[in-house]
Structure formats: C-alpha cells, structure tokens
Amino acid sequence: MTRNPMNPYLAGFLLGMVLLATIFVTGRGLGASGAVKSVAVTAVATLAPAHAAASPFYRPYVGPGKDSPLLSWLVFEVAGVLIGAFVSGLVSDRLALVTEAGPRVSRGLRWALAIVGGALFGVGAQFARGCTSGAALSGMAVLSTAGFVTMLAIFGTGYAFAWFARGLWLGGKAGS
Question: Which 8-state DSSP code applies to residue 129?
C-alpha cells in the first residue's frame, strides 16, 4: 500500500490509451454527462410516467418497446469509474471523506458552490449535447479542431477565472 499518487505523465498517457481503446472498441469517446441524463430520465419515468410520456424531452428515451436508459454504455462506464476510484483509493490507503476549501471558504459554502456549479455544468452539457471534458478529450483523440479549441477554452477560462478567485484559496497570500 502506498500513499503516493501515480506519476501525472504516466496517468495522462494511460488515460489517452483508455480513450483510444474506447474509440476502437465502441466507436465513441468517453463521457459522463450522458450517464447522469440516463439516470435522471429513468428516475422521472419511474416517479412520473405520465409526465415522461408527455414530455418532448423524456419521450424519446422511454416508452413501450424502448430499452431502459440505464442500459446505456455510459452508465456502465461511470459505474466503472466510481468503482475503480473507490478501489484505487482503498488499495493506496487514500480513502477518506474530505472537503477541500480555501481558508476563506466555509465547508458549507464549498458544498453549496459545488452543487450549484455541478447543476450549471449539467444544464450546460444538455444544451451542448455533451460535457466539456468529453468533447475536449474525445475530440482531441480524433484530432478534431473543435476538441483542441474546447480544451484551450477550458484551460484558458480556468486560468482567467483563477485570478479573480485566488483570494478565496490563498487567503492572505493572494495579493503577494
């Protein structure tokens, strides 16, 4: 058992190999937002079947003769990611429930911001018909210009926004 994380360059290389294998085997890239959508559609169809049948958003995914949205390969992919992350943390003795926050951010605020940010991310992924990380990674793997532009936009926006939010994470060091 070790507490040292994997070399990030090796981890990046292995992620790329998994991505290429996924494209070769399934013909599609990696993604996660589709799994969340499948779970949400299944929950709505189970709790409010009349609403799901009448809704133009849910109707294409549920109804007589249609397979359960939970049979989507993305659901199995995300389940595998969660199980793999748990096993990885367990065998490397890094399994703990931790809330990371800067010195000026309370634990409750950190969770509230994470939930709001996650919800906005999910809504944005539905408008864009896919999540940004899946578009960037999968797009770059097939040498798509849009994939490279997406990745540059993700990191560019992150660097630009980090300047405004750095005080929350660095405390008194933000101005130095």
Answer: T
Burial pattern 62-77, b for ≥16 Cβ within 10 A else e, equals beeeeeebeebebbeb
Specify the amino acid at residue 111. W
Is pLDDT above 50 for 175?
no
Q: What is the pLDDT of residues 56-94, one digit of tens each?
A: 989 999 888 889 999 988 899 899 999 999 998 898 888
List of E strands, the chain: none
Q: Sorting pLDDT into bands at 50, 70 and 90, what band is 3?
A: low
* Res. 149: pLDDT tops 60: yes
Instruction: Reply yes or no on whether the pLDDT at 165 is more than 60.
Output: yes
What is the distance between the alpha carbons of residues 130 and 149, in angstroms, rounded to a whole number?
Answer: 15
- Closest by CA position to 98, among listed 35, 89, 53: 89
Determine contact, residues 142/29, Cβ cutoff 8 Å: yes
Residues 6+ apart with CB under 8 A from 159: none
The first and second tokens of residue 56, run together, are 């133009």
- Residue 150: count other Cβ atoms within 10 Å of its Cβ: 22
